[in-house]
Design goal:
The chain has 17 helices and 15 strands. By secondary structure, it is of the alpha/beta class. The strands form three sheets. Strands 4-3-5-6-8-7-9 form a seven-stranded mixed sheet, sandwiched between helices. A six-stranded mixed sheet has the order 11-12-10-13-14-15, with helices on both faces. The longest helix is centred in the C-terminal third of the chain and has 20 residues. The radius of gyration is 29 Å and the shape is elongated. It binds thiamine diphosphate (TPP). Thiamine diphosphate binds next to helix 4.
Length: 467
């Protein structure tokens, strides 16, 4: 029966809010047919409420106007990366990445290739029309040798433009994909085969079996500047010579690949700093720190001491360094999170505590500190800007204390002492000091001096701030 697929919305919205029953695709274009095959499958498998469809940039950019399921729009070339995130965050859901040959084969190739190589659990529908459609008919990675486009007016020259990218053949070299097939929607017989492959790939998702890839050859009469019948003929006669149809792989009946299990002990040896401590389930408020200064001031090591201390105390921890382009002297910062619960992002945009060792970093990060948070900076930093009013700010003589103890480079250790004095870490002091001592494992002679600096810093805080 010829009717609109039930997986579509009843009316298709447009940008201006108006509604229509027609798609935006040109006559003779394959996108509409492919949409219909997918929409039918989603409805037939009762999957609409469990599917997230990732629209690309390209002619398929408006998929979210058509498919009555969850929808997310990805930037150009990033649909496979977005699909990776969605499928990992929402296990058990069906995730569909829909991408053109410009989108997947050019700007997004590495994203798509790596997702396939990792065997992410989503299906990628790759619409190969041998041209950039939406932008007006430029040469795509899949443009055929000799094919004229607006950017290859003399025809694609393989000597300068390379050969058409055969994505199925490339992906077929990878271990992880479960299903790879190339189909076409250029005539009815081919559409029936495409329908089967599309349904199979979606079923594989429904069953959680792994990565599926379906390349669909699709006519683009508008950009090829030919009629719909000729475009279909071109797709069959010319495109199939370069992109032969067929199934490359179907491992859907085989048991899923299982990662080599690494014994727990070895794993903890592999992951630097992995803890054998019992997970802490006590009442602990997650804390986010930002340490910043010049490269070489020990900012990253200071963050690492905190992260290692948290690790020994059974917390979830993250330590996320950020370097300027220079090796020494450039700005460096690191974000540290200590939490009982799993850490969503290691990047700290709004720290509870900011420790700043140079002026540019203090100026940059001070406004980001959470209301009610704390800023500690070296008192030698000239402050020629307003510091936030709704946080506690301490100008602390870190460099002075370290220098007075004969180790000017240990200002970072003095700052650790100030954090302990103000009880900003929330971990037992002995755990923090043990992590500090560990950080000098290769220079044990420095441990005692650094402990002394911590004590002096704490004493200064007690005498000058806390008394
Ligand atoms: C980062 C970025 N680069 C370039 C573009 C321009 N752009 C939009 S769609 C497109 C190519 C689309 O071609 P294809 O993926 O083959 O899809 P089709 O339109 O043919 O279906 C390009 C280059 C963009 N939107 N964003």
């Amino acid at each position: 029966m010829i009717k609109k697929a039930e997986g579509f919305y009843e009316y298709f919205q447009r940008k201006d809010g108006s509604k229509t029953k027609a798609t935006h695709y040109c006559a003779g274009c394959g996108h509409g047919i492919i949409h219909k095959l997918i929409a039918e499958a989603l409805a037939d498998f009762n999957l609409q409420d469990d599917t997230i469809f990732v629209s690309p940039v390209g002619c398929g950019a408006f998929c979210y106007y058509y498919f009555d399921c969850g929808n997310v729009a990805a930037p150009h070339g990033r649909a496979s990366a977005v699909a990776t995130g969605l499928s990992r965050a929402l296990p058990g859901k069906v995730v569909i990445s829909y991408q053109g040959d410009g989108d997947l084969g050019a700007i997004g190739f590495n994203n798509a290739f790596q997702a396939a190589n990792r065997g992410e659990k989503f299906v990628c529908f790759f619409v190969n029309n041998a041209i950039y459609g939406m932008t007006g008919g430029q040469m795509a990675p899949t443009t055929l040798p000799g094919q004229k486009t607006v950017t290859s007016p003399m025809g694609r020259d393989v000597a300068t433009d390379g050969f058409p990218l055969k994505v199925c053949e490339v992906f077929n070299q990878l271990e992880a994909p479960v299903f790879i097939e190339r189909v076409s929607v250029a005539d009815t017989k081919r559409i029936m085969k495409a329908k089967k492959a599309i349904r199979k790939a979606i079923k594989i998702q429904q069953e959680g079996r792994g990565y599926a890839f379906v390349e669909i050859l699709s006519p683009c009469p508008t950009n090829m500047k030919i009629g719909a019948v000729e475009a279909a003929q071109f797709t069959i006669n010319a495109m199939e010579a370069t992109f032969p149809l067929g199934n490359f792989r179907d491992r859907s009946a085989e048991p899923p690949l299982v990662a080599n299990k690494i014994p727990q002990k070895e794993l903890s040896e592999l992951i630097v700093g992995s803890s054998t401590a019992e997970a802490d389930t006590s009442n602990f408020t997650a804390k986010e720190f930002k340490f910043c200064g010049f490269g070489g001031q020990g900012i990253l090591s200071l963050g690492l001491v905190l992260a290692n201390a948290g690790n020994s105390a059974g917390k979830n921890v993250s330590w996320f360094p950020s370097y300027g382009p220079e090796q020494r002297g450039g700005t460096a910062s690191c974000s540290v999170v200590l939490a009982n619960q799993e850490i969503g992002s290691p990047s700290v945009d709004k720290p509870d505590v900011l420790v700043a060792m140079n002026q540019p970093s203090l100026e940059k990060f001070a406004p980001t500190v959470k209301k009610g948070g704390v800023i500690i900076y070296d008192e030698q930093i000239p402050v020629e800007f307003d510091l936030p009013k709704d946080v506690s700010v301490y100008a602390f003589p870190a460099a002075k204390i370290a220098t007075s103890k004969g180790v000017p480079k240990a200002a970072n250790t003095a700052l650790l002492g100030s954090l302990l004095a103000l009880d900003l870490i929330g971990l037992p002091e002995e755990v923090v000091l043990a992590a500090l001592a560990d950080s000098f494992a290769k220079k044990p002679a420095l441990v005692a001096k650094n402990m002394e600096i911590v004590e002096t810093a704490k004493a200064w805080m007690k005498d000058n701030i806390l008394s």
